[in-house]
Design goal:
By secondary structure, the chain is of the alpha/beta class. It is built from 15 helices and 13 strands. The chain folds into two domains: about 1-35 and about 300-395, Glycerate kinase, domain 1 (Rossmann fold, 3-Layer(aba) Sandwich), CATH 3.40.50; about 45-290, Glycerate kinase, domain 2. Helix 1 packs across helix 15.
Length: about 400
Amino acid sequence: MLVAADKFKGSLTAVQVAERVTAGLRRVVPGVEVTSLPVADGGDGTVDAAVAAGFARHEVRVAGPLGDEVTAAFALRGDTAVVEMAEASGLQRLPAGVLAPLTASTYGAGELLRAALDAGARTIVFGVGGSATTDGGAGMLSALGARFLDADGEPVPPGGGGLAELASADLSGLDPRLAAVELVLASDVDNPLTGPKGAPAVYGPQKGASPEDVRALDEALTHYAKILEGAPAPGGAGSGGPSGARDASGGGRGAVLGARAAEHAVSPGAGAAGGIGYGALLVGARFRPGIEVMLDVLGFAAALERAELVITGEGSLDEQTLHGKAPAGVAAAARAAEKEVVAVCGRLTLPPEALGRAGIRRAYPLTGVEPDVATCIADAGPILERVAEQIARDFLV
């Protein structure tokens, strides 16, 4: 039995979901062998999932999205680091009731990446999602040595709104260690930077952006990408990152980003986490669906070999689940290994045929036990144990 579920956002962490499911199963079948492998898709909870899988937790003080210091963590095992941008720049780092769509910065996320480099990381899985920011990764790049200046030669204000004042950009001073690491951009979204499906239009309203703010952010990020076309490239990483590929202008020192800046702006994942994906692509990151990356990092394949039944899940099994969320990734991998999969969730909006196409035989929502949604959120743990008891009766007895 393998429990590989994501968090129930706002109620239970992925670790707690595994604990509650295990408790419910063992209440019906006391001797059942259960392997817990909490999972995440690159968003908030990614570091916790890595720590649960045996990575060491490292805490550092970095800038939060509004500049105030916060304690953030990354995970490290050997020379592989898992860095979660939401640890530094996520919505949960904003003061209660405060949203800052125009001014929130990813500077702290860049500081987290630098801390991972300081710790000796040679491979960095950069999980992005749950951000408070829409700055195209400019703050992150600034923390790593880039310069973004206005017409007077002064640093532009933080946040996506400040990029409207951008007159020049220079990436030649980026931390040279970036050229020697494998940087993997792990995300569950493939949006471009701007446009109707871009970061401001699709995700800006979730961060408090009004329609006017969305237009301003889209224009600012479009301007940002245009300025970057003429920006001096990183001395080492600017020639294409760790792969060493040269850009159209020849690569190496003295080169500008050129067409690469425009190409990255429309690449899948550029719009992830308010455009921090774009900043990561500029320094040579390779985009991969977050759940695929995390299953590799967490050792899912080895755990799957020993399992006869896989229990996955997340807070809401809905249409978004089918597009790169953790349960869909777990189910796809399990189906390829001819393992049976069931899911637990807070609420369920997918019909059985959609679940079947995703490789999930059956879903067990908390609302099937307790119809009141507020009660399910408040008492998710005990209700989930009752759900797990039903799974045990259906599949283990």
